[in-house]
Amino acid sequence: MRSRLFAFLLCAVCALAFSASGTAQPKEKSKEKGKPNKLAKESSPYLLQHAYNPVEWYPWGPEAFERAKKEKKLIFLSIGYSACHWCHVMERESFSNAEIAKILNTNFVCIKVDREERPDVDEIYMTALQASDQQGGWPLSMFLTPEGKPIFGATYFPPEDKKVGEDTIPGFKTVLGKVIEFDKDRADLEAQAERIAKRTIEMLDANSRIVALVPIKRELVTGGVDAFDIDPEHGGTGNKRRDFRGTKFPRPPVWGFLLAQSKKPGNERLAKLTNTTLAKMLEGGIYDHLGGGFHRYSTERTWTVPHFEKMLYDNGQLVELYSEAHALDPRPEYKRVVAETLGFIKREMTAPEKGFYSALDADSNEKEGEFYVWTADEIKKVLGADADVALFKAVYGVTSPNFEEKFHILRLPKALSEIAKEQKLTEAELLAKLEPLKKKLFDVRAKRERPFLDTKIITAWNGQMIAGYAKAGEVFKEKAYTQAATDAADFVLTRMRDKDGRLLRIFAAPPGEKPTAKGAAFIDDYAYLIHGLLNLHDATGEQKWLDAAKQLTDLAVKHYGDAVGGGFFFTAADSEKLFARSKDSYDGVQPSGNSQMARNLLRLGVKLKDDSYRDRGIRTVKSFSLALSTNPTSMPLMLRTLDELLDAAGEPDKSAQKDNPKPKKPKESADVVTPKLTLDAPKDGKRTFALALTVEAPWHLYANPVGSEMLIESQTEVIVYVGGKKVEAKVEYPKGKELTDSTGSKYFVYEGSATIRGTFPTGGGEVEVRVKLNACKEGLCLPPSELKLK
């Protein structure tokens, strides 16, 4: 009963956070500094933002856990980062609230974590949140046993109960009260924590097992290309069934992979979609048209309204992406966006030591985006002359407000070349006219209260910025870009390693002290820096960068490599032991350490003419072949690596795979489903098929239609290919069995067996029927699968 109450409570809170995430909330005024807590001696800017909260925060470490065990208290864990808008909101609303602080201090040991300093802690507990069927995000709020096992969690909590429509969403004070009440039966909570911890470990292990079952071959690459739904109008990936509504992240690993694929014969449509995406991102409000650089992501389909953080890792990767795009298809807008973005990095994100700072906040003066947005009157006042105002408004779409009903986010409503034609100017002439107008606005903007700058230097992100600078230097033959990459690489290699040559994670300082390097590195620190060094070797030909890349690779293999299963663990073998040890595998906005290391190893093998590096790279790819087969959109950089491997050496695995028995303990949806495909002979230019799915008890599949908006992405779906090309098929799904969940919502499932029938046009080549499915039972869902039947 208690688990159900927790789930209901947290689903409601997550729904509230999600519904609010697209709007900037009014902020409370900053509180006066009170008594410092234990975070006051930390070097993380995010932790220091909480150093004067009345909450008795501890940094992550043994002191907090020892106190929790001694006093038999649960732990409240809060994870965020300095540029996180909703982290700031919760800090002001709840962690600065004396009443809430008293409840926390009396009943819990409170730990605050900067996810950028400790991504290992963040990944473990974010996975635990998802294992509890909750939506992930930051701030991450998690309740733990004194041993660190996750009981349950959510993201943002409002301080008080809140009415949303006809429902009342419980606030943080109410949630804390419920936890205190349930803690009277600690055994029940500990049992729940054991279940979630076990499920977390299974999820972390899901993508890197059963290595031999899936051969690495070209079909994995082509299947991966087909798996991405790309918005044909505004670019970017999303949910086609929802008309691509919702947030859009740039996800450079996706576009690096698709850009490379788009240049292959027969991929003209993909090339158009890829170019549309690159164009719409640089034209949209996600790009800073006055100061250069990209914001975090778009809150809606058109790339107009961003979350206004500027992260180093986004900009480093996007500089590399647009440089690669220019090398394949030279366009002046690609060159311009690289130059402007690197101008921003040099001006605002480069440390005196030549490394790069981490992030610029979304907020200034406690309002999200205030630094970047304009009213029409402000623009008129700054520019003065009517002709200048009219030109600027026409170019940047200043018509009706597009932010909070009164502000304008500058964006290009169409390509600059088209706007130039409308103005009867060449593109160069238009840019020359705009330059002094942009400078006037930029100078006025510079006098506003600036967003908070996170000055910690992170090895991994510096590696990505080095890679971007080096690639830009190589493509545009610009020595200043290459020199910036050289300076940063020298800094990291000389100032951010220990006496044994191993990398450290962070270069930062507590208040009043000089910055120093600290903290054990993670596999992404090695992977991204090695990538940057290899790009720098490409740009300069200097042997020292190749030598440094080899040395760091050898250290990564020694301390992070999995000698049994292949691939790399996120933490070193001698690092702090958490309740689980993960292998990161998701290429999100940043690639996973495993995908990046696989590509590094293949590149290093070629450069060194040493097959041992290439072989380890192949083994890393193989260790994630299951994920490439069942969920290819999760690993685009690994797909790119596989494609480069196949291009260079042919398909390395040609062996036919024998049928494998179902595992006794299912690890993914395919493990509990037996498919059988029957094809009829062609007739009148069409063929029909019947796909019988037998589902092991007590599992079920979500029917099509599933009958619930929340489950639409999990419903069973069949797609037909002929000769490797997707064809339009008329598919008839059986009606599912109706179920009702604990909240009264109805949905439909397939139990036992179900037969899906369809008709498709005949054509030359092999017929392949693919079915996407998700198997669940009471309280548990397996990772989704895609079955391919020929």
TrEMBL record:
Keywords: Signal
Protein's GO biological process: carbohydrate metabolic process
InterPro entries: 6-hairpin_glycosidase_sf, 6hp_glycosidase-like_sf, DsbDN, DsbDN_sf, RNA3'_term_phos_cycl-like_CS, Ssp411, Ssp411-like_TRX, Thioredoxin-like_sf
Taxon lineage: Bacteria, Pseudomonadati, Planctomycetota, Planctomycetia, Gemmatales
Classification via Pfam families: DsbD_N (PF11412), Thioredox_DsbH (PF03190)
UniProt superkingdom: Bacteria
Extent of the signal sequence: 1-24
Name assigned to this protein: DUF255 domain-containing protein
Region (Disordered): 651-673
Transmembrane spans: none
Species name: Gemmata massiliana
Segments of skewed composition (Basic and acidic residues): 651-670
Domain Thiol:disulfide interchange protein DsbD N-terminal: 678-786
Residue ranges annotated for the Spermatogenesis-associated protein 20-like TRX domain, each copy included: 37-198
Keyword Signal recorded: yes
